[in-house]
Amino acid sequence: MKYNPNEIDAKWQKYWAENQTFAAKNNSEKPKHYVLDMFPYPSGAGLHVGHPLGYIASDVYSRFKRHQGFNVLHPMGYDSFGLPAEQYAIQTGQRPEDTTRVNIDGGVDKEGKQIAGYRKQLDKIGFSFDWGREVRTSNPDYYKHTQWIFIQLFNSWYCKKQGKAFDISELVVVFEESGNELVEAVCDDNVAIFTADEWNSYSEDRKEQILLQYRLTYLAETEVNWCPGLGTVLANDEIVNGVSERGGFPVIRKKMTQWSMRISAYAERLLDGLNDIDWSESIKESQRNWIGKSVGALVKFQVSSSKSQVDAESGKTLNVKPETNFIEVFTTRPDTIFGVTFMTLAPEHDLVAKITTPEQKAEVEAYIEKTSKRSERERMADVKTISGAFTGAYAEHPFTKEPIPVWIGDYVLAGYGTGAVMAVPCGDERDYAFANFFKGQNGMQEIKNIFANVDISEAAYGSKDNVEIANSDFLNGLNYKEGTKKAIEKLEEIGQGTGKTNYRLRDAVFSRQRYWGEPFPVYYVNGLPKMIDAQHLPIILPEVEKYLPTEDGLPPLGNAAVWAWDTKQNKVVNTDLVDNVSIFPLELNTMPGWAGSSWYWMRYMDAHNENEFASKEALKYWESVDLYIGGSEHATGHLLYSRFWNKFLKDKGLAPTEEPFKKLINQGMILGTTAYVYRLEGTNTFVSKNKIADQKVQPIRVDVNFVNSSDELNIEKFKAWREDFNTAEFIFDENGKYIVGREVEKMSKSYYNVVTPDDICAEYGADTLRLYEMFLGPLEQAKPWNTAGISGVFGFLKKLWRLYFDDNGLIVNNDEPTKDNLKSLHKTIKKVAEDIENFSFNSSVSQFMICVNELSSQNCHSRAILEPLAILVSPYAPHIAEELWSQLGHTTSISDVAFPIFEEKHLVETNKEYPVSFNGKMRFTIELPLDLTKEQIEEIVMKDERTQKQLDGRTPNKVIIVPGKIINLVG
């Protein structure tokens, strides 16, 4: 009976689907375990062999936990809103919902392109997903709850004093009773103080405008990454080297009115929570750096501007009193305030236009235009390029009253701190480099040194240690801590500063000028946002003729014919019916890609609940994710936003835990092994790699499917691949073959090095793919794919099969297992259990191979050994394990059978193979029980005929015996 993986795979995948083998229960006497994968965006390109790595690992762990008696929730779904589907729709004229559905379910799109479909590809690999809980973020029955959560955020504010969110109605009561002077809330900067009487006298519109300054999601004019080519705002992690990750379009900084979320309110809790979760230190450190907590002072520098003296239209100078402005600076080193040599504003800072002098206007505007093309991430990362422009304005030092020149520079970011820096070149490398770069120019003063006994002629002194302040009036002689405290006290005395804790983390822009995303449940009355009542959700994405912005620059939803809210009928109606009396315009932006992914793990807990995103009972039972596996590229995007939403829902009494993911593992990337052919420059002749020598050649990537495991190119396939290769000529090696070059690179369609799991499953079976991916190396490391290694794993499975079957059928017997049989089995039980708990999946596969080799050499076919062996293999190779279990006479799935129990006694050595030496030279070995005394060992050894032969009638002078170690006869 031969091993036929294709038949076995199909049989058991059908069985699991029909019997809902992996359906989790929302209440069970078993302990719960929630294993989650970062759910994929379903692109038309489908899966390559790198994608399932994390899914296979989570599946091994899920199956193992079921064997241990847990009620395991292991769901899967699709993050199906997103820019790629919209871009594809624009290019091909197809509806994003249609292409997304085909990408998931498979089929042929309108261009006649055959799409494998994520679901079918995943099913072929044999995952133990609970498909009954599948979610798709682009389905209205899902995003209705995303809209509901948005409404909750809008109707909430954050109390600093209690450190949590509350309903906005509670804030209104405070305003009505006592105004806002004593309210400790996270809110906009520079909120005006008002009394209760003033609040109660305000119009409803004025009250709404004020409340927008406190709401956890709010409208504000913010600096955004605007991508004209895509017609949308991009998040920082969607930009690479100043262009969009999708399409490579230029990105500029631009001010727009956007929805934002006050994630900054949760900065301290997001930091504290990192101490309570089992994540890698590198991911935690990424989040700490992104949140960027720093303690220091907020300092106000007065600046008088002559900008208002120039008439904007005529350019004539007017006799107008100069306007007084203040530059606010956050600094972690207030002790160095007497070392301020210049000030730098972000090019986007609001004050730049107000304070720039007429003489400097052209230079400043040109610089602003230039820097608008660089992303914030690029500006933060570029520490080598020095650029800036002098505004012509001067600020006043709060203590010395000396004038300080004000510059702009793109190393300062508008969204970090106050968007302004008090530059102390003697104590900061970047300020030092800036000052030296512009040394001698108008507006750049000599560097002031305020450190005693420190030479700054070559470099700044950035350390806080061993600091003695000098040339600093009342701070002279103080160290860093003393100086900081004293400086803050004096700043507060004169009303020009205060102690402050600052965070790099900024509020998250929550608007996208695109079509394929969650619609906001928002309409506008007198320009102010109103929430649609939750009972009328979902607000469904409307049909549009085209997915581009309108001719006047509005987002794609501006093209919708039916996109207005009727407040009497409580439904979406034709746009041309807007009368701003009872029918109002709806929000034209959509939510960003991270909206649906910021809470999806909770929906899996109760995926079919129509009334709420999950019931309290389901949330209480599952609590949080026990194991989360996904890519490290989401460290400061998805993972941070998810933690923020979870904490907010916890405040609202919805999420049962503070943190959503207890343990996080980042799987490494499976890299492709690209194949290269080499074309002689200026010709259409290709030379084999081992014949290149000193010839000038152009390397060209070639489809890896044209190359065999010996790196030999299939010439016919290559020539038929592209028209310009039809007439190609070849210089072969000595064996008449064309050998390609190989290079390990990212697996990508553009590199022609993609291997699909479908092909591997079709040729070798899903279990071979699963085992091989786990065998490649440690889960968290990057490793290259090499299809040649597949055959070895396939050979192992065939060898495993032969323990149970020969050509005539089942050969398993009821023989009593030998000591060696039991030793091989229990070594494997111990090793596999430890490896899975430690996520060392590759060493488990090695142990399986060792075990099967040992049992084969022992000619073991004992049921007492082979039944537990099938269970051990089951998490990794579930199809063959199910078939073996069934053939052994069992009628239920192997998936819930208890994991074998390790018994130490089978690994305890009872015998020892002693080396027997004569005068220090080992002549033979003898196996003896370990519990023998020295005398008993000596007696046995002396009677052994091999000893007698070595002694040849002599009597040894001494017999040295160390029990359990050595036997040595001397003389």
TrEMBL record:
It is found in: Cytoplasm. It catalyses: tRNA(Leu) + L-leucine + ATP = L-leucyl-tRNA(Leu) + AMP + diphosphate. Its EC number is 6.1.1.4. A motif ('KMSKS' region) lies at residues 746-750. InterPro entries: aa-tRNA-synth_I_CS, aa-tRNA-synth_Ia, Leu-tRNA-ligase, Leu_tRNA-synth_edit, M/V/L/I-tRNA-synth_anticd-bd, Rossmann-like_a/b/a_fold, tRNAsynth_Ia_anticodon-bd, Val/Leu/Ile-tRNA-synth_edit. SUPFAM superfamilies: Anticodon-binding domain of a subclass of class I aminoacyl-tRNA synthetases, Nucleotidylyl transferase, ValRS/IleRS/LeuRS editing domain. Keywords: Aminoacyl-tRNA synthetase, ATP-binding, Cytoplasm, Ligase, Nucleotide-binding, Protein biosynthesis. One of its GO terms (cellular component) is cytosol. Residues 822-934 form the Methionyl/Valyl/Leucyl/Isoleucyl-tRNA synthetase anticodon-binding domain. GO terms for molecular function: aminoacyl-tRNA deacylase activity; ATP binding; leucine-tRNA ligase activity. The keyword Amino-acid biosynthesis does not apply. Pfam families: Anticodon_1, tRNA-synt_1, tRNA-synt_1_2. The keyword Ribonucleoprotein does not apply. Its main location: cytoplasm. Residues 11-156 form the Aminoacyl-tRNA synthetase class Ia domain. ATP binds at residue 749. One of its GO terms (biological process) is leucyl-tRNA aminoacylation. Residues 288-492 form the Leucyl-tRNA synthetase editing domain. HAMAP family: Leu_tRNA_synth_B. Belongs to the class-I aminoacyl-tRNA synthetase family. This is Leucine--tRNA ligase. It comes from Flavobacterium potami. The lineage of its organism: Bacteria, Pseudomonadati, Bacteroidota, Flavobacteriia, Flavobacteriales.
